[in-house]
Amino acid sequence: MGSIERRAASDPRDVVTAAGISIRPTLAVDVPEMASIEALAFSDPWPASSFHELLAHPFSRMATATDEAGGIVGYCIILRAADEAEIANIATAPGARRRGIGARLLDDAITAVESAGGVAMFLEVRESNTAARALYASRGFAAVGRRRGYYRHPVEDALVLRRDATALE
To answer: Which of 16, 32, 48, 106 is the most interior residue, by most CB within 10 Å?
Structure first.
């Protein structure tokens, strides 16, 4: 898979705006707010140090969704290997849910991976997370496996989902 291009946040090619939400590359100054969303969104959250490490990782792509005031309302992290990619983390701030932000972040991730020549994307999702599963299914992701006891607090299986580049053609 080709490189998932990294550009400065001020590059207009990296800003996607719809309904007052913009998606742009993540900056180091975004990490504290992202870590706060992470702590509210997940029962076993990543520490801020994980976000900082991934910012420097050559095989990662991090996108941040911001509202009209510039506040961070969501993010998506992709890790790539060869011609495949994994959505390692995607989250929307609890107060900003049900506004299509997760869908916009997911669409941005799919576009980035496919533009770089990716042929498949993977992710894990809690089996009980029906809203996320419905979103992923609407974008062509399908279950291909299960990781028993993958999640903690509470312990729950993860469904492994895959999306092929031709999923919705």
So the answer is: 106
pLDDT tens by residue, 40-79: 998 889 999 999 999 999 999 999 999 989 999 999 999 9
Q: Is the pTM of this model over 0.70?
A: yes
Structure tokens that stand for 145 in this block = 């496996």
124 part of the active site: yes
Cα→Cα distances 138→54, 66, 90, 106, 109, Å = 28, 23, 16, 11, 14
Q: Which structural domains are found in the chain, ordered by start?
A: 12-120 (3.40.630.30)
Known catalytic residue: 75?
A: no
Q: One of 38, 75, 136, 151 is an active-site residue; which one? A: 136
Q: Which of 124, 127, 150, 156 is catalytic?
A: 124
